[in-house]
Amino acid sequence: MLKKLLTLPACRDIELDDPDTFNLEKQIIRSKPFLQDIYLEWYAMISSHLPPGNGPVLELGSGAGFLEDFIPELVTSDVQHRQGITAVLRAQQLPIAGQQLRAIVMCNVLHHIPSVEAFLNEAARCVRPDGRMLMIEPWVTTWSSFVYRWFHHEPFDPYKADWTFPSQGPLSSANGALPWIVFRRDRERFERDFP
Predict the structure, then answer these.
(1) What is the dihedral of CA 71, 83, 101, 172, to 10 degrees?
(2) 106 burial class (0-12, 13-18, 19+ CB within 10 angstroms)?
(3) φ, ψ for residue 122 (rounded to 5)?
(4) pLDDT level of residue 182 (50, 70, 90 thresholds)
(5) Minimum mean pLDDT range among 152-156, 157-161, 163-167, 173-177
(6) Nearest 5 degrees, angle CA 121-CA 125-CA 130?
(7) If pLDDT is split at 50, 70 and 90, which confidence band does 10 have?
(8) How far is CA 77 from its chain centroid?
(9) Which uninterrupted H or E stretch holds 93?
(10) pLDDT at 30
(11) Contact 101/54 with Cβ under 8 angstroms?
């Protein structure tokens, strides 16, 4: 009940996996200066860490964002078709030849990928040797754990034994703790399997 009470009124009756959600999210991001400033900071950080040179940069889960304002040659993508998306694709099966990408970038996407291991294998195959994968993701702290468990609409399980979850919908399927699991809790495994 508290989650519903804290939800923006415009979002209360919309299904999370409805493709129109992207348009509503874009309007919300652009209409709230504080939220827009967060995205501007994230996008500036991501674009400043791209490797030099030419070559395509793939954004996964472009959704409601506007990263293309910072990276003009950006290939935008999502799992559902919508206006402004260059490619409809799934992160675990990228339709890209090996070592073709200068970078893969994403904001709040990794924790929506049902098999992080399958995605990391694809990323390692598609990104050139001097390329990068850059992302902004949720993190597990005492405060974030409280917020994600009690107030957030996405699943959050920092005790999940593996890097997967059942895929039910493109936006509703998630584990907000996955980035922390992969890059902190299971860091040794990550470095071993994906040097």
Answers:
(1) 110
(2) buried
(3) -65, -45
(4) very high
(5) 152-156
(6) 115
(7) low
(8) 11
(9) none
(10) 81
(11) no
Rounded distance, CA 8 to CA 82, Å? 23
Taking only the tens place, the pLDDT of each residue in 95-127 is 999 999 999 999 999 999 999 999 999 999 999
Tell me 133's DSSP state.
Answer: E
Q: What is the pLDDT of residues 120-147, one digit of tens each?
A: 999 999 999 999 999 999 888 999 899 8
The encoded tokens of residue 128 equal 């050139």
- Matching residue, tokens 């890209």: 96
The secondary element (H helix, E strand) that includes residue 50 is none
Look at residues 92, 31, 38, 30 and name the one whose alpha carbon lies nearest to residue 61.
Answer: 92
CA angle 170, 173, 177 (to 5 degrees): 130
Task: List all residues 6 or more positions away from 110 whose beta carbon is below 8 Å from its beta carbon.
Answer: 116, 119, 135, 137, 178, 179, 182
